[in-house]
Amino acid sequence: MAKECEPPERIKKYEALDSRLRENHPIRPILLTEYKNWMAGYKGEKSLIFHLSMLPDSKYLIFHNIRLQLGKYYFQIDYLMLCSAFALVLEVKNRIGEYHFENYLNQTTLKFNDKVERIKNPVLQARVQAIKLKKWLQKHNCSEFPIHYLFVNSNERASIRIEPGNERILRYICNSEGLIEKITQIANYNKTVILDTKELRKIKRLLLTNHTPEKFDILEHFKLLLHDILTGVQCPECRFLPMEYIYGTWVCAKCNYKSKTAHIQAIYDYFLLCKPSITNSEVRQFLHIESPRVAHKFLSHMDLAFSGTFKDRIYFPK
């Protein structure tokens, strides 16, 4: 794949916050609901890898979760497929229930457990992303080529119902097991080579260079303060906080689990939750240790970027 399927940083931040909030914190239920929704989305996108792996690598460039700026705003594509004849935008949904695509105003509802909710029409979502991508490519002086779009249902416990008279929308919908067949149909209708190898390389480079990950401040999102975050090294075995550093080993006072490296996750939690840089002093405060030498050893043994002299050094994740 030109851009691999990886969990968004937002999911990592949800997990870090979940591990560092007291059990009875009032935002915990909201946090867990958001986390489950995002994880479901990611798992749905990840499940497509099995189907996409059946396609020839030499023909298609596949990008997962591309986020690009168009004017003042950003747009995000779950999967973008690119070949010499066309591009294909995939909008992936992983929800349980019955999708109902209505004629009236192109409305879509999802029914589950006798509850019906109106949701964004995923076909229109895919279409809008395709339109935005076309404008973005024009802005970057790329050759024009057909851009198709599909809504892909990745959940086996979901069904799709089309209102009579709205059958035309079926050409833009498939279940994940029918994705390869849909791609094959699109390829059979688009055989004219428009993009040569040089142009494909140019577009690939443009997409990867301009991809802008979401900046998600989780403390601001939940209106939390730094003192809401539990500090210390967490036990990888029982999740107890904080572990004690005794003669070069982290020891859990609750289950007696021992680790030489438990501090690594704690430092990455700091990057995810507190701020994207850390100093020796901040490490000592967050890990509950006193020795600057030990803090330096921890930081220097991790794969971190840094700036400044030894005394005033600031560390960053790569």
Features:
318 residues, alpha+beta, Arc Repressor Mutant, subunit A, 2 domains, five-stranded mixed beta sheet, four-stranded mixed beta sheet, 9 helices, 24% strand, globular
Describe it.
InterPro entries: NERD. This is Nerd domain-containing protein. By secondary structure, the protein is an alpha+beta fold. The chain has two domains: about 10-210, no CATH class; about 230-315, Arc Repressor Mutant, subunit A, CATH 1.10.10. The protein has helices at about 10-20, 30-50, 120-140, 180-190, 195-210, 220, 265-275, 280-285, 290-300; strands at about 60-70, 75-80, 85-95, 95-100, 110, 115-120, 145-155, 160, 175, 245, 250, 260, 280, 305, 315. A five-stranded mixed β-sheet has the order 1-2-3-7-9, sandwiched between helices. A four-stranded mixed β-sheet has the order 6-5-4-8, with no helix packed on it. A three-stranded antiparallel β-sheet has the order 10-11-12, with no helix packed on it. Helix 1 runs antiparallel to helix 2.
Q: Which helices and strands, and how do they pair?
A:
Elements: H1 9-19, H2 28-52, E1 61-70, E2 73-82, E3 87-93, E4 97-101, E5 108-112, E6 115-119, H3 122-139, E7 147-153, E8 158-162, E9 173-175, H4 179-189, H5 197-210, H6 218-221, E10 244-246, E11 249-251, E12 258-259, H7 263-273, E13 278-279, H8 280-287, H9 292-300, E14 304-307, E15 314-317
Parallel strand pairs: 3-7, 4-8, 7-9
Antiparallel strand pairs: 1-2, 2-3, 4-5, 5-6, 10-11, 11-12, 13-15, 14-15
Helix pairs in contact: 1-2, 8-9
Pfam families: NERD (PF08378)
Organism: Neobacillus vireti LMG 21834
Protein name: Nerd domain-containing protein
